[in-house]
């Protein structure tokens, strides 16, 4: 069985089908991009995998464990952890204390939690901000803090929901570097992203949703040529640009 196995997952909110019979696999150590137009069901699928929503049908296995009905705390404890599109750091606490909140999921003793937090802080290049109040950070730094806090929980599968939205081009580049660095460290990443120039070069595979259904899955070079994806999301102009670059 794949590291993450999503099988025939559907999620309905009343009569609205946000995810419709979605199936895909993620191999350990890979980067998978989850893309699609607004309202396609990407965040809902993240919520189903991370235990925030319970799918109305289908199964989800992580590292051989059935997490279909696991609450978020159990799923995170197993190592499948998500970040949020809108970041919510504990504004009045310092960067170190925010990351320690994640680390306390692994370690009860403050010294051990602090050591793990410091490792994650340096991995996310936040050393210069350790004593700063989280509320005082720029959006780009807050997003890195969100990643550091998720890592500190002991994430092995890290799910990033639009980690690059609202960032400057320099911050987007830094975020891409961080994601590839985390992959090199052995993490598996599932990334929801609208910035195609950022996700295309680093993803091993893309899964494309539209109207709740999976319409395509494959390596980026195949996806940019897929007529359904071009029609539903990428647009012909963008697809030509990516093919020629
Ligand atoms: N809690 C909810 N209750 C009712 N409808 C919901 C709920 N959450 C999501 N939806 C609906 O499900 C559909 C999919 O939404 P979702 O946020 O998963 O899409 P998305 O692909 O993440 O969109 P975006 O790219 O804009 O973030 C939308 O029609 C949305 O309005």
TrEMBL record:
Tell me if Cell division is a UniProt keyword of this record. Answer: no
Q: Which GO terms describe its cellular component?
A: plasma membrane
Task: Name the Gene Ontology molecular function terms of this record.
Answer: ATP binding; ATP hydrolysis activity; L-isoleucine transmembrane transporter activity; L-phenylalanine transmembrane transporter activity; L-valine transmembrane transporter activity
Kindly give the SUPFAM superfamilies that the UniProt entry links to this protein. P-loop containing nucleoside triphosphate hydrolases
Domain of life of the organism encoding this protein: Bacteria
Q: Which PROSITE patterns is this protein grouped with?
A: ABC_TRANSPORTER_2
Biological processes, Gene Ontology terms: D-alanine transmembrane transport; L-alanine transport; L-isoleucine import across plasma membrane; L-valine import across plasma membrane
Report domain ABC transporter positions: 4-236
Is ATP-binding found in the keyword set?
A: yes
Keyword annotations = ATP-binding, Nucleotide-binding, Transport
Q: What is this protein called?
A: ABC transporter ATP-binding protein
């Amino acid at each position: 069985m794949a590291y993450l196995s999503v099988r025939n997952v559907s999620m309905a909110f009343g009569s609205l089908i946000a995810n419709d019979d979605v199936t895909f696999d993620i191999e350990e150590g890979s980067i998978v991009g989850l893309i699609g137009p607004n309202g396609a069901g990407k965040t809902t699928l993240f919520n189903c995998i991370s235990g925030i929503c319970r799918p109305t049908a289908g199964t989800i296995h992580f590292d051989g464990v059935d997490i279909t009905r696991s609450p978020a705390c159990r799923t995170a404890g197993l190592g499948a952890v998500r970040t949020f599109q809108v970041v919510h750091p504990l504004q009045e606490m310092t960067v170190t204390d925010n990351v320690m909140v994640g680390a306390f999921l692994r370690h009860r003793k403050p010294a051990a939690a602090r050591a793990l937090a410091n490792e994650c802080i340096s991995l996310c290049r936040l050393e210069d901000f350790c004593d700063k109040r989280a509320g005082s950070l720029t959006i780009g730094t807050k997003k890195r803090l969100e990643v550091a806090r998720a890592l500190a929980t002991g994430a092995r599968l890290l799910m990033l929901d639009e980690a690059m939205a609202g960032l400057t081009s320099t911050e987007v580049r830094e975020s891409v570097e961080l994601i590839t660095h985390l992959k090199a460290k052995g993490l598996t990443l599932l990334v929801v992203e609208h910035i195609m120039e950022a996700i295309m070069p680093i993803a091993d595979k893309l899964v494309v949703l539209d109207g709740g259904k999976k319409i395509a899955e494959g390596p980026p070079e195949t996806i940019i040529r897929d007529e359904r994806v071009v029609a539903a999301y990428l647009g012909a102009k963008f697809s030509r640009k990516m093919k020629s670059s």
